[in-house]
Amino acid sequence: MNGWVLLAHGDDLAAHGCWATGWIGAIPVLVRNFNGSLRGFRNVCSHRFALMLTEPTGKGPLRCPYHAWVYDQDGVPKAIPFNDTDFHLDDAARKTLALPAIGVAMAGGLVFAHLDPDADSAVPAGWMAGEGRECTLPDGSVIGPDLVILHRASARREGAC
Ligand code: FES
């Protein structure tokens, strides 16, 4: 899938440390609030490729549950248990292990994600500007004029798209 995907409601990410997860096609992704800035990454640890955040939403550090690597706002592992004795990763080596970034956009109080970190973040806002008509999102969900979202399965059942 190559497009913007609805990931979460903005309220889910309103405070520092709040995060939300989802999928863009078969790729697990996450968005987290870092001191008021929403940053998104692939939700796969750089160490042994574990899925890191497994709940739809939550609050806390971006920490892998497997060996407890903690990632910063740039997706770089900043805390690595036993680094001094086992891994010996300096800052440059840590940067090579940064999580791949994704695109993040806020529009209409909703948070959208895109696999391309350089994707045009104005696109979701353009959808929201379509007053009085429905907008079909890339995942098949439909946003009505009142900004009520119908998941794609519901939209199909009701014949909305
Ligand atoms: S797999 Fe994530 S810290 Fe080891």
UniProtKB/TrEMBL annotation:
<dbReference type="InterPro" id="IPR036922">
    <property type="entry name" value="Rieske_2Fe-2S_sf"/>
</dbReference>
<dbReference type="InterPro" id="IPR017941">
    <property type="entry name" value="Rieske_2Fe-2S"/>
</dbReference>
<protein>
    <submittedName>
        <fullName>Uncharacterized protein</fullName>
    </submittedName>
</protein>
<dbReference type="InterPro" id="IPR001663">
    <property type="entry name" value="Rng_hydr_dOase-A"/>
</dbReference>
<dbReference type="Pfam" id="PF00355">
    <property type="entry name" value="Rieske"/>
</dbReference>
<dbReference type="GO" id="GO:0051537">
    <property type="term" value="F:2 iron, 2 sulfur cluster binding"/>
</dbReference>
